[in-house]
Structures are given as C-alpha cells and as structure tokens.
Amino acid sequence: MVKGQAELAGTPALPLVSANLRASQLRLPGQLAVASLALRGELKADAASPFQLLLDASGVQSGRLAVEQLHARADGQRLHHRLQLDGRFRLDAHAYTLALAASGGLPAASSQWRGTLEKLTLTGTPGVRLLAPAALEIGPARQRLANARWVALGGSVQLAEWLRSANGNVSSRGQANGLHLAELAAWWPLPLQQSLVLDGDWSFGYGPLGHLQLRRSAGDVWLPGQSNHPLALGLKQAALALQLGNGRAAATLALDSQYGTLAANGSLPWRGTLPDGRTPLAGTLQLNLPSLAVLAVLAPLAGPSLQLGGQLSANLAFSGPLAQPQLQGLSGQQLLLADHKTGIRLGDGQLQGRLDGRLLILERLRFGGGKGEVVANGVLDLKDNVPDATVRVTLTRFSVFDRPNRLLVVSGVTDLAFVNRKISLSGHLRADQGRVDLPKQGTPTLGDDVIVKGRVAAEPSAFASLPITVALDLDLGDRFRFTGRGWMWN
C-alpha cells in the first residue's frame, strides 16, 4: 500500500523531485519485500537552490539480505552537499551495523559526482572502519576511491587507488598489514585449524597486468592428528606471490616449517578469464622432509604402534593440463616403516616415483631386512584421505619378523591391493627360515572386561581394524620351527 504524492521532472543531469510518500507491505520484482518505507524531500532544478531528501525503511528482505532499519539523508546544494546512511541488517545469520558519511557535489551539467568519503564503519564479523577521509568519485565515466586507510581483520589496509572505467576495466593498488585470517572463518571456513597473520601488497591494471604478494608475519597451522590431537606445523616462513603479464599468470610459493621446506613455482596462460582443466600448466616443486616420523601421527590409519622414519625429497617438474598434471622426480632415502605390535619392521628404504595426475607411480620402493630385501612397484590412487593402492612385492630372503619369540625370513612374489580400506593379498611365498615360540599354557589372565587403574592399555596394531582377504600359497620350507608348551615341531 502506497500513500502520498510525488513529482519527478527535469532531465537526468538536472532532475526535479518533490515527494512525500509512505508505503507498507510492498512486494517488488526481484523477490524484494519492504515492510515500511517513507520518502520525503524536495530537489529543485536550480543548481544553487538548497535541497533535502530523507529516506527511512524497515523490514526490507531480498534473498540472503534482511535490512532491519535504514535511514538515508541528503541535504545541501547540487554543487556541494552531504550524504548520510545508517542502518542495521543481517546477511545470512550475521548481524551488521553500517554508518556512512560523504560530502561532495555535481558540477554544472554533469552527472559525475566528486567528493570525499568521510566515514564508513561496518560493525560485525568481519568488520571494517575508515581511518581518514578518502577521495571518492561516482558516475557513468568512472568510479574511483583513492587514499583510503582502513582497519580490517585485526590489521590495516592502505588502498592507494581503486578505479573502474566506463568500459568496465578495473585497476587497484595498495598494501595490508597484520590481517588475521581467523576473522574470515564465519564466511570462509578453512579446512585446517590456523592462527595465521598476513601482510601483503598488490597492484593490478589493464591487460591484465600486476602482482599480488602475501607473507606470513605470525601464526601457525595445525594438521589433524591421531585421537583428535592436532599437530602444529611450526611455520617459520610462508610466502605466496602472483604475477600477471605478457598473457601469463605465474605463481611462487615458499614454506619453511619445523618439519621441512617446500618451494614451488608455476605458470599458465592468462587472458583475464578463468582457466579450466585443459589449460596447460608448467612449473617446478622442491620438497624436503628431513624426517618422516611426523607422518605416523598424521596417517589416518596409523595406530600408536606405527613408526615411520627416513627422509623424503622431491625435485619435481610438472607439466600438462591443469586437471591432469604430470610430475617427475620423487625420491626417498633411509625410509623406515615399523609396527611394534606385530614386529614388522621395514628399514633402509629407498623410493623412486612420479606423479601422474592423482596417481602416484611407484617405480621402485625398496626396503632391506636382515640379509635380504623387498622391492615393490605399483600405483597409488590419491583420490581421498585414504588412497587406494595396487602393488607387486618381490621378496628375497627378507626378514619380516625378527623378535626373540618370532622370526620369519621369506622369498617370493605377492600382489597387494588396498581398496576402500580393505586389504587383499595373493601370491606365493616360501619361508627360508622361521621360528615361532608359543606362549605358555596355564598362566592366569584377566578378562577383556577388566580394567586395571594406572596400567596403560595395550597398543593395537596399526592394521588390526582393516578387513583382509588372503589367497596366498605359503611354503614353510624345511627350516621352520614351532616351540613351546612342551613340544617342538620342525
């Protein structure tokens, strides 16, 4: 329902407005609803005549935006006037308060407004606040904001200039210091726990040309570990740089943490449109992990009995389409995989591999054991947090177990598959040597339902919870011995 009167005349450059309107329960195109609206004021065609326009609205709903209350005021003359805007609104479930003030004017016979943004405060999460007046220009010829200093995300932003020309081209330059990424969590939740504080600078222009640099100044990232105990990455340095020019986009990344270092660079064609999976990519990646022990804590299937060790290095050159890059040059030395519960220990490991899209190709993975070795080659599909794998394993007098009560040295060939968290094993193995000491009978034991205070629970095997299917021919040979419980069997 609308009540009142309004008059609109003149030209777009010199409009004549006289209004005193009230409206309620409006339903407008574009799913716009207004519970209450009041507009009053007068604007004369004479550029020197004073004017005043007032707008009050409440209960405005448009998609995800709900305006609880809005008050706008403009008064002065065409050549010089003041603008004020105050309001409360919600975007999704987030509440905000807005306060804006500006002053400026329209030159004679011009529709290009020029003036000063004197105040802009957005209270909420995240919020922003203008520290000092900034030059503002709005009109069909261009929109420009210059020399604007802000408080945002717990830090500061210096916007030297933002400019949009009549043809739609946008340019911008500025710098930022002390930005807390955690303040973006409500709108941009990151997959990892973090407390990063960033500095940066940027400059973009037509072409497109320009650069963006982000640098960590403080904070850390936590990786998900076992038993809901996140593991701090221990960042020392983190920097990302993006460069646009000559029809290409180039990026560099450098990370340094207590566990290792990573340096990467890459480039692809860039003409101002988003790349797709067919866009050709080229670059290099260097990774150095002096110790793999930390991976045992991060491995989703690992239990407390799993031990990893050794060094991993990669000097990768990648190329090909963005959706299926090819990478060469993955290697590892002195690798160690041990499960203390079962006694399995794979040491003196060496790795040679490459990446083909999401596939990790194991060209050669070797572990030494006793006087023998085990050599594997195959494919790991890195599709999820837990990869699928198909591997062929060749054992030559390899010592699988070597404990006081358990010894097993084997030779043979097996095919191992790990798909959908299930293990299947097939092939033929011969025991070159073996010994199993059976536990003594008659020793009293506590039931599984008895809990002894102060006693640490037995560590489960890292592989105990995995379903396993075995189709394995096992030849015990003539040097396999069972002992215990008063008898011995060869």
Short synopsis of the structure:
By secondary structure, the protein is mainly beta.
Which short descriptors sum up this protein?
1% helix, transmembrane, 30-stranded mixed sheet, transmembrane helix, three-stranded antiparallel sheet, elongated, TamB_C, 1 helix, 490 residues, Translocation and assembly module TamB C-terminal domain-containing protein, membrane, mainly beta
Strand content: over 45%
Overall structural class, as computed from helix and strand content, comes to: mainly beta
Poorly predicted regions = none
The tally of helices reads 1
Biggest pleated-sheet summary = 30 strands, mixed
Query: What does the overall shape look like?
Result: elongated
Rg over CA atoms:
35 Å
Could you tell me how far the N terminus lies from the C terminus, measured between alpha carbons in angstroms? 100 Å
Which percent range fits the helix content?
Answer: under 10%
Membrane topology: Single-pass membrane protein
Domain Translocation and assembly module TamB C-terminal: 369-486
GO cellular component, one term: plasma membrane
InterPro entries: TamB_C
Can you walk through the features of this model?
Keywords: Membrane, Transmembrane, Transmembrane helix. This is Translocation and assembly module TamB C-terminal domain-containing protein. The protein is mainly beta. Among the domains are: 1-92 and 100-107, no CATH class; 276-490, no CATH class. It is built from 1 helix and 33 strands. The strands form 2 sheets. The protein has a 30-stranded mixed β-sheet that branches. A 3-stranded antiparallel β-sheet has the order 14-17-18, with no helix packed on it. A hairpin with a 7-residue loop joins β3 and β4 (51-62). The protein is elongated, with a radius of gyration of 35 Å. The termini are far apart. The mean pLDDT is 84.
